[in-house]
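Need tokens for this chain, all 383 residues.
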Amino acid sequence: MLTLVKNAQLFTPEPRGLCHLLIADQRIAAVLDATEQVNVGALINTLDLEGRRVIPGLVDPLVHYIGGGGEGGFGNRTAELSIEDACASGVTTLIGALGTDALTRTPANLIGKARELAAGGLTTYAYTGSYQLPPVTLTGSVASDILYIPEFIGVGEVAISDHRGSQPNTHELTRLASEARTAGLLAGKSGIVFIHTGDADSHLEPLRQVAKHSAIPLAQFYPTHINRTSALLEDGLRFAREGGRIDFTTSSTPELLAKGEVPASEAVARALRARIAPSQLSLSSDANASLPEFDEQHRFIGLKPGKLSSLFEVLGECINEHHISMEQALRCAATTAADALKLPHKGRLHAGADADFIVLTEGRWAIEQVWALGKPVYGMSTL
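Here are the structure tokens for all 383 residues:
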């Protein structure tokens, strides 16, 4: 069956005006100007959106599918991501990670959950490894995980400048990046090293040392939490000027903001004012991770869970509060991550791309429908 989605005010992320989307199976077969005549046959389902805005499905490069945390003991473990919450969030491509806990949570758990979410209609990938080195893996090595397990596209989130990490030295980070990069080349994947950045004064310097003393480029690393502090944000802007990509975390708490975290939408606005290209900026939710609070002696105080829905919320803040164009904001919430992770069929709406998109509610910033791989997963059950 073919599906014709008519009269969409389309952002691809570029503004295209009023268009029709022709969907064949899981992909966009054609994007047609709304003035073009379309002969609708008996084998084509049709849906008229009557001018509603349509944007690409969001790409989230950091989601804790199976929960995270536990820094305060077993009573502080966060819950798994539910398929209902995932489908309602507007995120249609998710990349899972372990994080701090690679003891009671495992790569096998992570892949199992990724496949559960994929069975619900979403596109899911994952990072092998966790905060610590040597990395925990499914097959015995980072290289073989990336090469042989379809969902594994890189390694992460590896912690630097954080008291919970294994304090890796330049040699260890270089070897890890080299292994992931080579495996990615062999497998046709990104082989990215996704980096958790803590609040220590070293910031992103460990990554610069790798690039300085080896042939590994800065772009092999993909550091997140760059809006954790103003000082880290400034170092992140420098990192971007040097050729790297940086990622801002959309989940936050009043406590973290009070201690100096920069709201993600403000971080995007500051980066754009600093003339950092949207192709070097992305947003991630850190969904279902713990957002822990520590005192000055790094003693645990408490935590709250990250939320997948925060990515769409921050996208709206970028557009409605900071007056960032829809195109630039969408690049940060979808296209940049897709490019960094070598997923050219994601984060954009054109012929040949996966039919992942969000239909926005008329007149306000809210989700009316979510489509993933050519089928509605939220907001409507049938055409």
